[in-house]
Inverse folding.
């Protein structure tokens, strides 16, 4: 049963075989040895590691060695702001928050609005920038420490990043980029350069500190090609290779695949109305049988069930309760309707709480965002085309800082410490 699948930084399709991916990408599995070490250092093993949601890594032992020798590391992760955040995106970010708390680590969070603009035909520059801010609200809502978290949009922090990016770019040939990312002659040249922008934050902490700082990148496995390049270039520039820890994708409500923005009916956005989210869950693909009688007799199949996956990935932290749910399903004691209702309740209460924190984050965004542009620069950008702003407002509906004649703005510049 070897279905085809594809995993690239811009496209994930099919049923992903993660063991095969470890082989193909040449990463290391998270094994018992690492888990034991993790427990010894931190005192416990978080759910995401226990359940192999984070399943693979590069140089994790190296960064733990350094940590145990008293050398603190910095975290780096990011988001391509092509639309609103869905709950699949939250998975690695929640784990990153756990890492920040556990290792007392600063976090650099990159919004690659440049990348999404370059990649997506229909996305305007302003929309991409606006989504950077919308998505940042979700990051902030997860509770990161404002004193240790630096969120930036590539298009607003380009001066700082570009100086590192060109150094990286100079050491990557077109033929490497083609081999790693599958580019061809029809690829726009922005996208070919872009990988060096995604490398830059891995070296930024070292540039700023004036000495080498270990960096750990928690990310979904599809981004690994970028960091393969980053790690190749690092020693040539005199930096440490960044370590990485990789997660799987949250499946879509339709079953296989990852949750994807291109199919909104099988994806739960953090901005979804609670009623809408409930409806999506009640329509999810399950491992149920054709009739109740048959299910009582044969039991369900949690292995193929999207609803069970949601408990597994996010909505049942208690391992014993998860096992019990699985048992009840397989023995035909619980029917899909009940299981979906339970999940819908959990998702609804999660969304309610998250959305409240997300709204509050609008007033706190200045505590997190770093930028190369000042308010004076923003004034230069005004006034904008009124029509453009009106269109943007329609797209974003409630984008917090876009007023008539206003520009996408950063409220405060903050220098990195
Ligand atoms: N390119 C990533 C995306 O499309 C965003 C990103 C930038 C990122 N830097 C990162 C993701 C570092 C993980 C880690 O989602």
């Amino acid at each position: 049963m070897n279905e085809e699948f594809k995993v690239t930084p811009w496209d994930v399709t099919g049923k992903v075989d993660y063991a095969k991916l470890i082989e193909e990408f040449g990463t290391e599995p998270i094994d018992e040895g690492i888990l034991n070490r993790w427990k010894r250092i931190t005192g416990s093993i978080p759910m995401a590691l226990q359940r192999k949601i984070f399943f693979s890594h590069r140089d994790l032992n190296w960064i733990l060695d350094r940590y145990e020798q008293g050398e603190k590391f910095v975290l780096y992760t990011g988001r391509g702001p092509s639309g609103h955040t869905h709950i699949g995106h939250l998975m690695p970010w929640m784990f990153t928050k756990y890492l920040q708390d556990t290792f007392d680590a600063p976090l650099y969070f990159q919004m690659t609005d440049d990348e999404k603009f370059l990649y997506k035909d229909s996305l305007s520059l302003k929309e991409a920038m606006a989504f950077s801010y919308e998505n940042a609200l979700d990051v902030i809502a997860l509770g990161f420490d404002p004193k240790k978290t630096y969120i930036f949009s590539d298009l607003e922090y380009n001066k700082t990043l570009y100086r590192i990016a060109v150094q990286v770019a100079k050491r990557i040939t077109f033929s490497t980029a083609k081999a790693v990312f599958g580019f061809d002659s029809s690829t726009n040249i922005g996208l070919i350069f872009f990988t060096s922008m995604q490398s830059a934050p891995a070296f930024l902490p070292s540039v700023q500190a004036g000495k080498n700082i270990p960096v750990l990148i928690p990310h979904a496995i599809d981004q690994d090609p970028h960091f393969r390049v980053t790690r190749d270039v690092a020693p040539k520039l005199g930096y440490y290779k960044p370590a990485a820890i990789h997660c799987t994708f949250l499946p879509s409500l339709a079953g296989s695949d990852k949750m994807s923005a291109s199919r909104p009916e099988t994806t739960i956005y953090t901005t979804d109305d609670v009623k809408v989210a409930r409806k999506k869950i009640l329509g999810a693909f399950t491992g149920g049988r054709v009739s109740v009688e048959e299910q009582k007799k044969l039991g369900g199949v949690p292995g193929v069930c999207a609803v069970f996956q949601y408990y597994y990935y996010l909505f049942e932290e208690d391992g014993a309760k998860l096992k019990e749910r699985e048992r009840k399903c397989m023995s035909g004691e619980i029917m899909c309707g009940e299981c979906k209702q339970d999940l819908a309740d959990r998702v609804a209460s999660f969304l309610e709480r998250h959305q409240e924190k997300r709204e509050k984050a609008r007033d706190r965004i200045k505590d997190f965002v770093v930028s190369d542009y000042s308010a004076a620069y923003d004034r230069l950008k005004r006034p904008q085309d009124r029509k453009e702003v009106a269109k943007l407002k329609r797209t974003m509906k409630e984008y917090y800082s876009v007023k008539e004649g206003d520009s996408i703005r950063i409220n405060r510049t903050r220098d990195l410490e």
Q: What stands out?
A: Residues 9, 76-80, 110, 112, 115, 198, 217, 219, 223 surround tryptophan (CB under 6 Å).
